[in-house]
Amino acid sequence: MPRLLVRRPSMTLADGELTHLDRVPVDPELAQRQWEAYIDVFRARGWDVVEVDPADAQPDGVFVEDAVVMFDELAVLCRAGAVSRRGESESVEAAVAASGIPFVRIEDPGTLDGGDVLKVGRTVYVGTSSRTNTQGIAQLRDVLDARGWSLVEVPVTKVLHLKSAVTALPDGTVVGFAPLVDDPSVFPDFLAIPEEHGTAVVVLDDSTVLMSADAPATAALYRSRGLEVVTTPVTEFEKLEGCVTCLSVRVRV
Ligand code: CIR
């Protein structure tokens, strides 16, 4: 049974980091309800939901994808690019260890945010963003080289993370909102989609994706390609530069 690693939103979510967006009011109770609905999508499909301990002092702790990335059975524990987010890692490491998942850590001076890591087949695209530095990427490369993954660096200057601009459909097509993608030619198979909030998809299975409810034209485009599309509202997380991918780590071993 696949597992889903999540952390419930902090009541201080509204104080989370912002890089490219202006701060607007965030409703923490609505965020809580949206988060519950998000994990219900997975529960309804038989996923086993594992909660990392709550971290009320960490406004961005809900974006658990940034703290850990799975490569086959191995977890890579990230070192956050934002100093304010480094306090998230201890509890994520504890949850990974308690789940019996083997792990390695990105160490100082490396930084890596999971939002900068996009896996497509055995290729790992890693964004060189304001959060992920060359030492972090070099450490990740060392981990992956021995395990049959190839790593491709991708410039990210227009959005927070690589996966704020692009993700991949189950067939490996990389989808992105072109005005936010630095260089679409990096990806062998790139599909431009019409809405910013349509870029983030979580692959639920070979024919089903989960995405934001705030991109209806993109959902229609994905359906026209034969995909089943599940949508869920994540407005309160989008206000903090988050999206559907950031809210969980999918563990498929
Ligand atoms: C941050 O700036 O770190 C948070 N406010 C948003 C993180 C979103 N995570 C992601 O895209 N993977």
TrEMBL record:
Its EC number is 3.5.3.18. Coiled coil: none annotated. It is an enzyme of class 3 (hydrolase). Keywords: Hydrolase. It comes from the Bacteria. InterPro entries: DDAH-like (IPR033199). Signal peptide: none annotated. Belongs to the DDAH family. This is Dimethylargininase. It comes from Microbacterium insulae. The gene is ddaH.
